[in-house]
Amino acid sequence: MSVQVVERRDPAAVERLLRSLPAWFGIEEAIVAYVEQVRTASASFVAVVDDRVVGAALVERRSPALVELALIAVHAEQRGAGIGRALVDAAATWAASAGAAAFEVHTVGPSFEDDGYAATRAFYRSCGFLPVREVEGLDWDGPTLILERPLAVP
Amino acid sequence: MQTTAVEDYVKAIYAYTEWQPEPVTPSRLATNLGLAASTVTEMVKKLSAQGLVDHRPYGTIALTDEGRALALRQVRRHRLIETWLVQQHGYAWDEVHDEAEVLEHGMSDRLVESIAHALGDPERDPHGDPIPAADGTTRQPSATVLADAHDGYLGTVVRISDADPELLRFLADQGVELDERMRYVGRGRFTGGLTVEVDGVEHTVGDDVAASIWLSAPCQEPTHAHEA
């Protein structure tokens, strides 16, 4: 199986991916907002296997120095096959070539117990993100963990 | 047997969405209970571990069926005790909340049901809040908060929030009671207050009052033919 990551805006595919992952994307308004964000994000990536979109990522340029990985999702049936890692690497490459020094991602902090997000944090760490700090009430009414992946200055 | 704190939390979570649609979050609950956010977060974690609430990542707090059943039981006790204190012990409606807060945790089911029976199984408390039945069913009256009423809205007062005893005393002094007909005249252009009419007398009230009084579905205008 070969994964190809391409820069493409595909809201319908993103919606299908998010709906396959109710343990992470179970809130209707959040799904609608993400699908909307596919059109407006600084860059949008999809991972394709055999002509099928199996994963997606969105990045947002937050400042000249900082790019955030705003969304990453891999279809429920395709997880664990390196698709997420390929998306993160493509997004990090985009961030570095855009001149950013740091690549950041937010997720649910470890002080909120949840098996799904424990797996998410482990995934980010395995992709080279380092936990920076936990903040209360940043993206939701609970703890957010901020992770950063340093980018090589070209 | 649940602890007093657990009973109070599920009751507060239930009451939060009883009269308004905004969902509960830990920080809203903390403001509501006058507690630190970290205290509430810890407690919500415990309630979640006990299967009484559902709190998902990025989500709001919701009672599970079990949590709702416990909340309704506690709400029934609280409101029955308030009704009992007003009807049989000469308490004013602004004096019953704190007393009921204590008593609701200590009474046996037998005594609570005996009080309900003696009162004729009332369906609402002195502030108009519905008293859930012993089987856990409850009937929510359809109502509009005065702050959302349109000019000229005429309804009967079906609920007055008991969150602020001073406000209850003020309203009692103004002669505002449950089942009273109230007309929302409009907002004064220069006074900043709202004008309401009760018994043919106009009163100007502030936003606190407007957010604390619920009116029934609009009433028919009385006509002279009916009065004759």
UniProtKB/TrEMBL annotation, chain A:
Pfam families: Acetyltransf_7 (PF13508). Keywords: Acyltransferase, Transferase. CDD domains: NAT_SF. Residues 4-152 form the N-acetyltransferase domain. The keyword Manganese does not apply. InterPro entries: Acyl_CoA_acyltransferase (IPR016181), Bact_Acetyltransf (IPR050832), GNAT_dom (IPR000182). The keyword Acyltransferase applies. PANTHER family: AMINOALKYLPHOSPHONATE N-ACETYLTRANSFERASE-RELATED-RELATED (PTHR43877). This is N-acetyltransferase domain-containing protein. It comes from Agrococcus versicolor.
UniProtKB/TrEMBL annotation, chain B:
Signal peptide: none annotated. Belongs to the DtxR/MntR family. The lineage of its organism: Bacteria, Bacillati, Actinomycetota, Actinomycetes, Micrococcales. Its main location: cytoplasm. InterPro entries: DtxR_MntR_Metal-Reg, Fe-transptr_FeoA-like, Fe_dep_repressor, Fe_dep_repressor_sf, FeoA_core_dom, HTH_DTXR, Iron_dep_repressor, Transcriptional_repressor_C. SMART domains: FeoA, HTH_DTXR. Residues 119-138 are annotated as: Disordered. It is found in: Cytoplasm. Residues 1-64 form the HTH dtxR-type domain. This is Manganese transport regulator. Pfam families: Fe_dep_repr_C, Fe_dep_repress, FeoA. The keyword Cytoplasm applies. It comes from the Bacteria. Homodimer. Keywords: Activator, Cytoplasm, DNA-binding, Iron, Manganese, Repressor, Transcription, Transcription regulation. The keyword Metal-binding does not apply.
